[in-house]
Amino acid sequence: MNVVLVHPEIPPNTGNIGRLCCAVGATLHLVKPLGFSIDDRNLKRAGLDYWKKLRVLEWPDLEAYLSAVDHGKIVLTSSKRGDVYHRIHFEPGDHILFGPETTGLSQDMFLRFPNRIARIPIDLSKVRSLNLSTAAGIVVYEALKQIGALPALDT
């Protein structure tokens, strides 16, 4: 599983998502420009010591990332459009894309990849969106559940 943050802006969110990826064996892709330095102490604090164990791939821009991946594996996320996340058919090796915290993914992305857009239902009259790391956790665990790849419980 691959979690892709397109132009993330808030270091603690990226750190938390890095920790999530480490916990489930997912690869974290960071698409530049980033709103912070990868050495940011807030990023490291949120990711704790797990950051060293995480597989992170950095991309210079969105086009470089898109030219390197199978477009059939791309799943976009949105707070305003798409199908409810648990109705999306996830497959091993999928790339789940999350946009910047303040704007989400661009309209161009939704036009380019209109068939696999995951949305978490929320009451938009009360909030604009969920926190990025919360949304990532919800969608990633659903994807892992569907493909039978949830981490084993330690007993």
UniProtKB/TrEMBL annotation:
Q: Which UniProt keywords apply?
A: Cytoplasm, Methyltransferase, S-adenosyl-L-methionine, Transferase, tRNA processing
What is one Gene Ontology biological process annotated in the Swiss-Prot or TrEMBL record?
Answer: wobble position ribose methylation
Q: What's the Enzyme Commission number for this chain?
A: 2.1.1.207
**Signal peptide bounds:** none
Q: Does the keyword Transferase apply?
A: yes
InterPro entries, from UniProt?
Alpha/beta_knot_MTases (IPR029028), SpoU_MeTrfase (IPR001537), TrmL (IPR016914), tRNA_m1G_MTases_N (IPR029026)
The compartments listed are:
Cytoplasm
Question: What domain of life does the native source organism fall in?
Answer: Bacteria
| A GO molecular function held by the record | RNA binding
* Top enzyme category: transferase
Role, per record: Could methylate the ribose at the nucleotide 34 wobble position in tRNA.
Quote the HAMAP family the UniProt record gives.
tRNA_methyltr_TrmL (MF_01885)
Protein's name in the database: Putative tRNA (cytidine(34)-2'-O)-methyltransferase
